[in-house]
Design a protein that fits this description.
196 residues; single chain
């Protein structure tokens, strides 16, 4: 039985006592959740977490701070693949526009897709800091993991939260009307019909 904290995480001081299989079993799902909070789709998060765990395996158990290390490597793997995918999709969209002149109506995006799009628009440092904070890391821990000053971490976290707050407020108001708003319907006979 591995020494686990009550919430299932491996305490930093006890990582040396844990074998890789136990580490993977506990930290893989937590790394996937971390990446989801950073804006990754579930499949993207799993792929990036698996890549980071594979890299960790080659250096196990000499890697210091493996929990944070896996998070950072997984996030970078996700961002690298997301950038490649973005370029590929942009190229495919351009080719599709050139090949088919007809306009295809789009379905309205759902709220989760809007949230993910909002997360992806945040600068990288804000995404990293927000995802680590949502994963339970404190300001000093995030600063140590990312090589930043605690004040910079707080600033990035504040900006990320402000952006998400603005998104949530605009979502609560509902979509803006498209095109001109029609005037209210009038009773039959026009506005000058006398009422009796």
């Amino acid at each position: 039985m591995s020494p686990l904290a009550p919430h299932g995480a491996i305490p930093a001081g006890l990582v040396d006592c844990v074998d890789y299989d136990d580490f993977f079993r506990v930290e893989f799902p937590r790394t996937v959740r971390y990446l989801r909070r950073a804006g990754a789709a579930f499949e993207e998060a799993e792929d990036a977490a698996q890549e980071a765990m594979r890299e960790l395996w080659s250096a196990w158990p000499t890697r210091t701070h493996p929990v944070g290390w896996v998070r950072v490597v997984a996030l970078h793997a996700y961002l690298k693949k997301a950038e490649r995918d973005r370029k590929r999709v942009a190229l495919e969209a351009k080719n599709a526009r050139l090949a088919t002149p007809a306009h295809q109506p789009r379905a309205e995006p759902d709220e989760w897709a809007d949230m993910v799009r909002t997360l992806r628009q945040l600068p990288l440092k804000q995404r990293e800091v927000l995802a680590l904070a949502l994963d339970g890391y404190g300001t000093d821990e995030i600063a140590a993991l990312l090589g930043m000053k605690p004040g910079t971490v707080r600033s990035n976290l504040r900006h990320a939260r402000d952006a998400l707050k603005a998104f949530l407020e605009s979502s609560a108001e509902g979509p803006a009307p498209r095109g001109p708003v029609p005037p209210p319907r009038q009773r039959e006979g026009g506005p000058h019909v006398q009422q009796g």
